[in-house]
Specification:
With 414 residues, the protein is of the alpha+beta class. Helices cover 41% and strands 13% of the residues. The chain has two domains: 109 residues, Phosphorylase Kinase, domain 1; 219 residues, Transferase(Phosphotransferase), domain 1. It has ten helices and 13 strands. The chain has a seven-stranded mixed sheet with strand order 1-2-6-7-5-4-3, sandwiched between helices. It is elongated and about 120 Å long. The N and C termini lie far apart (114 Å). The structure holds adenosine-5'-triphosphate (ATP) and magnesium ion (MG). Keywords: ATP-binding, Kinase, Membrane, Nucleotide-binding, Serine/threonine-protein kinase, Transferase, Transmembrane, Transmembrane helix. Belongs to the protein kinase superfamily.
């Protein structure tokens, strides 16, 4: 009996010992885990602090340097070193650097003027040609557009979107620096005014194949924004003056100051203030402020109509019933025999009627009042791609004086 009791007692004390050992081990591992956690979080917060410090230094760098004179102790060698800081490939410039890149913002270097301010031609010390936009619009809206443009173009990259080279927020100045597009805005070529380099005295010399290439490039720009980015980006100010042309008349979409992130849900919309340019704004957005990627598709359709007809979206000086381009053109677009009646006379019949009918049908789908029935930009890209022919470098010119105005001929039907 006594032996059995002793046996039980021994087992009991062994169990107790095991419990104590296990508890000690658990406590020890808890302690080790806690110490490790403290060590890591300390390391992370130190790293974050040093990053924040560096960013603050970067932001302070521009105004400090711009205030200093040529070669004065700031280390910029009197403006010879162009880059103050690099932010995901987008450079931060000082006002002084852009002042010298644009010949002191000389009048001779002005290449255009928009609602943001004047646009200047410039050359960076490394030889790169740039366009510099100098904001002359004080107030919250201008500030918002500047920030949106910088934030979006720092992240979005496509061969069909204009590249932002850098920006400057220095001593109250706001400037945007872009790659230089040698042939400027599409509208200048569609509607050349007196004084603009066109040998035909105000008649567009943009040939059909070039127009189709521009339409395709621009559609790819919007396709990227709508379908390759998540959440999708709605441009909100797509128009012919925001399609810029390089020296080979390839097009890039520009000006993202009004852009908005769209809804990720299929058929979803975002509600927002109604902004944009008259003649390009989709009816449902104009009426309700409901914005979707299909609002851009509508604006794209208006640009296609400009390319077909050579007419600006709104001109109340045109004969009665012709003032609003969409309203005037819509009844012609889906009638094969009628398309010829709205074609730009400046094309002088130099296009395939079959292709023109197809483009008119695409434009009709894009500008239809019911947003849901408008195509996706990917569908537009697919439909336009076969219509774009390889252009020889001689044929692409729109403003070269070597190209004479041919007498009007009838387009070929094939
Ligand atoms: N990157 C660039 N390269 C060459 N020229 C440019 C460039 N950006 C703009 N321009 C020229 O400056 C003009 C004005 O452009 P800007 O974007 O400021 O105004 P807009 O598009 O005409 O009007 P809005 O302010 O309503 O958008 C363009 O039509 C074009 O000729
Ligand atoms: Mg513009």
């Amino acid at each position: 009996m006594g032996e059995m009791e002793d046996g039980y007692k021994r087992e009991e004390s062994v169990a107790l010992l095991v419990i104590v050992v296990l508890a000690t081990l658990s406590l020890a591992s808890l302690f080790v885990a806690f110490s490790y956690y403290c060590y890591i979080s300390n390391k992370v917060s130190k790293h974050l602090k040093s990053l924040k410090g560096r960013n603050e230094e970067k932001e302070k760098a521009a105004p400090l340097r711009s205030g200093s004179g040529r070669g004065s102790g700031s280390g910029d060698g009197g403006g010879d070193v162009p880059i103050l800081a690099i932010d995901s490939g987008v450079q931060v410039f000082s006002y002084k650097q852009l002042h010298s890149a644009t010949g002191s913002f000389g009048k001779g270097n002005v290449v255009g003027h928009g609602s943001f301010g004047a646009v200047y031609r410039g050359v960076l010390p490394d030889g790169r040609k740039v366009a510099v936009k100098l904001m002359d619009r004080p107030g919250k809206q201008g500030e918002e557009e500047f920030n949106t443009e910088v934030e979006l173009l720092t992240r979005l990259h496509s061969p069909h979107l204009l590249t932002l080279v850098g920006h400057c927020s220095d001593s109250g100045h706001r400037l945007l620096v872009y790659e230089f597009m040698a042939n400027g805005g599409l509208q200048e070529h569609l509607y050349p005014t007196k004084g603009y380099a066109c040998s035909c005295g105000g008649i567009s010399k943009l040939q059909w194949d070039t127009r189709m290439q521009i339409a395709l490039d621009a559609s790819k720009g919007l396709e990227y924004l709508h379908e390759h980015v998540s959440p999708p980006v709605i441009h909100r100010d797509f128009k012919s003056s925001n399609i810029l042309l390089d020296d080979n008349f390839h097009a890039k979409v520009s000006d993202f100051g009004l852009a908005k992130f769209g809804s990720d849900k299929a058929g979803g919309h975002v509600s927002t203030r109604i902004l944009g340019t008259q003649g390009y704004v989709a009816p449902e957005y104009a009426l309700s402020g409901h914005l979707t990627t299909k609002s851009d598709v509508y604006s794209y359709g208006v640009v296609l109509l400009e390319l077909l007809t050579g007419r600006v979206p709104v001109d109340m000086n045109r004969p009665s019933g012709e003032g609003i381009l969409v309203a005037w053109a819509l009844p012609y677009l889906n009638v094969r025999e009628k398309v010829i009646e709205i074609m730009d006379p400046a094309l002088e019949g130099q296009y395939s009627m079959k292709d023109a009918v197809q483009v008119a049908a695409i434009a009709a789908m894009c500008v239809q009042p019911e947003a849901d029935y408008r195509p996706l930009m990917a569908d537009v890209v697919q439909s336009l791609a076969p219509l774009v022919k390889n252009r020889s470098s001689k044929k692409i010119s729109s403003s070269s004086t070597s190209q004479s105005c041919k007498p009007a001929t009838k387009p070929e039907y094939d």
